[in-house]
Amino acid sequence: MAEMGKGVSAGKIASNVQKKLTRAQEKVLQKLGKADETKDEQFEQCVQNFNKQLTEGSKLQKDLRTYLASVKAMHESSKRLTECLQEIYEPDWPGRDETNRIAENNDLLWTDYHQKLVDQALLTMDTYLGQFPDIKSRIAKRGRKLVDFDSARHHFESLQNAKKKDDTKIAKPVSLLEKAAPQWCQGKIQAHLVAQTNLLRNQAEEELQKSQKVFEEMNIDLQEELPSLWNSRVGFYVNTFQSIAGLEENFHKEMSKLHQNLNDVMKTLETQEGKPSTNAVTVKAQPSDSSAAKANKTPSSPPDGPPAASTEPKTTNHDDSEEPPAAACFLADTPSVVVSKSPSQPSEPAPDTTPKKEAEVKPVTAESDSNQSSSLPAVVVETFPATTVNGTVESAPPKANLPPGFLYRVRAQHDYGATDSDELELKSGDIVLVTHFDNPDEQDEGWLMGIKESDWLQNKDFEQHKGVFPENFTEKYQ
């Protein structure tokens, strides 16, 4: 069995060597012009398109891998940057927990983006290029079978031509053996030569038919597959780059929200920790009658204007110098504030007021020590409800003409097209009045509730014109 196997193997090797020699001889004859070559221009064009498609796909795969490597490197750089921020962010600074959450979300976004690029782009690219090696091998094999077909065809044609020559020489001896043989034997020799020639011709014909069949089967399959493969490149490129563009768009959208949150944390840190402390101003609250305030609310007099008219005499403790008049304003429907310009002298309580139809101004008398030559008057000023923000007393604007639940104003920095009925349509520059959500559980991260200021001023119909909008399309507007 082993000897038989060795014999079969040796015979197959000898057959392959003979085929290679025959093909090499045929190619040399074709290049020298001594043998014609079967041409198929349509198939040659398909092969050119295949090679071009393979080159483009391989370059795209290489560049995609480079892009993924860059994304991974950017991920590492971004991770190190956020880790550095966590290290230098002191524990007692405001927003410590928020910076940790931003760092975790930043790492998750980069990891998810890289993985989706691998799944939806790189693996698809590898599958697409995986079909090219097999087709390339079949094209090469088809070329070898074409050479075998041409060689068999030429061999059969040469035997056909030799048969015609033998027919003309069949009546006379053609060799010394025939000449030396008896007359009765010459006919048998000629018959043997004819039979041998016919056998070779039949074998050549069978080999031609066999090689032609193998070549045509491979040629037909490739003629169908190559144009289909060439046309598939358009859909593949579209899907690949749409996937990359969509993934990158979503990634940057989510990353921009994190950047906006980080920017807000930095602003809070700057407000509370970055500004030097200033001397506080002594402020005393003074109760007022709300009904009188609504009737008598008018703008206060300018500091350098004439003294306000008064029906009561002005009290002063100086005989030789005239006391500067006390500036006054009418009470509002919110607590009044007495600002003492003389820290060493407490201000007198404001006189009681009663509701009147006409505006009434009452000066405030400022007492002075006898050792002082003069003193500044106490001033009654109208203020809004006092609120404390980061240790600083600020006044909030009156909310009589603002929608319910008003928080603050924002200005649109970019156009935003509403995608749902509960969203606001924004144009760059629009002012939006931000309000509370009726149900805080309905608020999504990064979204605000409000009404455009123009709609509120024109209609005063909050429920009809309110809507949600993305916070990162706007900035706070003072």
Topology:
Blueprint: H1 2-32, H2 41-88, H3 96-129, H4 132-168, H5 176-180, H6 183-274, E1 283-286, H7 290-296, E2 336-339, E3 379-381, E4 386-389, E5 392-395, E6 406-412, E7 431-435, E8 447-452, H8 453-459, H9 462-465, E9 467-470, E10 474-476
Antiparallel strand pairs: 1-2, 2-3, 4-5, 6-7, 6-10, 7-8, 8-9
Quick synopsis:
With 478 residues, this protein is an alpha+beta fold. It has nine helices and ten strands.
Report the sheet with the most strands, covering strand number, pairing sense and barrel closure. 5 strands, antiparallel
The radius of gyration computed from the alpha-carbon positions, rounded to a whole number of angstroms, is: 50 Å
Number of domains: 3
Tell me the strand order in the biggest sheet: 9-8-7-6-10
Q: CATH top level of the largest domain?
A: Mainly Alpha
Encode the helix/strand succession as letters. HHHHHHEHEEEEEEEHHEE
β-sheet strand percentage: 5-15%
Mean pLDDT: 73
* Total count of strands: 10
Proportion of residues in helical segments: 55-70%
Distance between the termini: 98 Å
Q: Please, could you describe this protein's structure?
A:
The protein has 478 residues and is α+β, with helices and mostly antiparallel strands. The protein has helices at residues 2-32, 41-88, 96-129, 132-168, 176-180, 183-274, 290-296, 453-459, 462-465, and strands spanning 283-286, 336-339, 379-381, 386-389, 392-395, 406-412, 431-435, 447-452, 467-470, 474-476. The chain has three domains: 41-274, Substrate Binding Domain Of Dnak, Chain:A, Domain 2; 281-398, no CATH class; 406-476, SH3 Domains (SH3 type barrels, Roll). It has nine helices and ten strands. The strands form three sheets. The chain has a five-stranded antiparallel sheet. The chain is elongated.
